[in-house]
Amino acid sequence: MSAEIPEAASAEEQKEMEDKVTSPEKAEEAKLKARYPHLGQKPGGSDFLRKRLQKGQKYFDSGDYNMAKAKMKNKQLPTAAAPDKTEVTGDHIPTPQDLPQRKPSLVASKLAG
Amino acid sequence: MAGAGGGGGVGGGPAPMGGSDLQWCFSQVKGAIDEDVAEADIISTVEFNYSGDLLATGDKGGRVVIFQKEQENKSRPHSRGEYNVYSTFQSHEPEFDYLKSLEIEEKINKIRWLPQQNAAHFLLSTNDKTIKLWKISERDKRAEGYNLKDEDGRLRDPFRITALRVPILKPMDLMVEASPRRIFANAHTYHINSISVNSDHETYLSADDLRVNLWHLEITDRSFNIVDIKPVNMEELTEVITAAEFHPHQCNVFVYSSSKGTIRLCDMRSSALCDRHSKFFEEPEDPSSRSFFSEIISSISDVKFSHSGRYMMTRDYLSVKVWDLNMETRPVETYQVHEYLRSKLCSLYENDCIFDKFECCWNGSDGALMTGSYNNFFRMFDRSTRRDVTLEASRESSKPRAILKPRKVCTGGKRRKDEISVDSLDFNKKILHTAWHPLQNIIAVAATNNLYIFQDKVN
User: Fold this and answer.
1) What is a single molecular function from GO for this protein (chain A) (predicted)?
2) Residue B183 CB contacts under 8 Å (≥ 6 apart), including other chains
3) Would you say the ipTM is above 0.90?
């Protein structure tokens, strides 16, 4: 991690004020930093890229699933529809039925209509 | 650089170069008009085949629709160049990878046609993980008079057959069938962003965020990794591959672009693993103008070789750049697509629009470029006159053969009557995918769930 100039330094603040006049991009950057003061210094860095690489991640755990199946052997299976479709974690044991069912499009494309 | 062509053009077809010298007319629009757009109907890729007779679209629902250009008909002169549905099929379906807890979208990321070698047409379509080779063939004859079968297909009792006959071929209504001939799966850990058919017509490449693989069209159980930029320690990851393409004539050369705004050209003759590039294209940046947004807006969303193979074009968030393959230090031409968005980057970051991936394309003679923008605007640049034009794909200007009126975005205070202010732009109406007919001035523009086809004015 490279050494960063502390935000409070007045020299940097002054430079930002000057840049605001000359560069719309820097003005936008100042706006963003004002709204999100904790935003990382390296936006193009690994956090951002790793989030991009993890697109599509769902929290289904096969261990949890098998435990749930064993527990519920003698009970009725829980109905589908988890309270929150994106995160099935916590007290609730996730099962494949809880995940939003992605069925293939049975309808033909409207472009072909 | 001499001549109006702006580089070696494609032979045949009297297509004058230049997007802005021409007047563009509305030709057709495909898709539903309703306000509520289903996610599955959003078009995700558009591609003409090598002759321009076929136009393929892919959507988020994993479906492919292929349109065919009608033959010129003297009795209906105004049906010149109309595209009508030829075939449609479900290419990919949603999947769930339980092992990795990954949902695999059926969205078609790219379609690439193979050059035509016989009566059938072949194309490659890909989603995030799997590439498929589809064969589209016509059937217009049916055999009748089988010896062992009835007309309705039931088997005849062989002992009852007393005479032999030769089945005859009878014409039938044209049926277009699409069948998957090859499925190229399990070669990508990350999400496939590009596929590109090699000029040898035998191999093709597929690229994901960190790797590029080389396939043979006949072999599905093996693929060669030719680029791997995955760091040993993922914490050190600084850039990803955003697009890749084979050179149109040199079968050993390909390029790949990165999220840091660089392009690497690789030669497969130099080594089996092309981690070391042969050429590295990067425009020097003025360090004093660097901001939080610099790297994000420099990320290249598309790279396309010119038809001549002498140039390549890249698209980043705000501009389109043309590079001479012989010069790595900077592009030879830069065109601003929507510079007025530079003072809106903060909001565009907040609503994620800054990550939109626009594509770009060349016209057949390499004299003009086209790319999309917001508010259903798309831009064309004439390389020799340096003129540019902004046009809009909208239902309002969809009267048959209506000439498209150039649009203008107003950035300053005083807005003229026909101008639209930056703050009134609809950022949900993005034109990410456009295609230009390889030989004629016909363009296809995907506006969310609608496909617009425009042609130059017939004199």
Assistant:
1) protein phosphatase inhibitor activity
2) B130, B131, B132, B133, B220
3) no
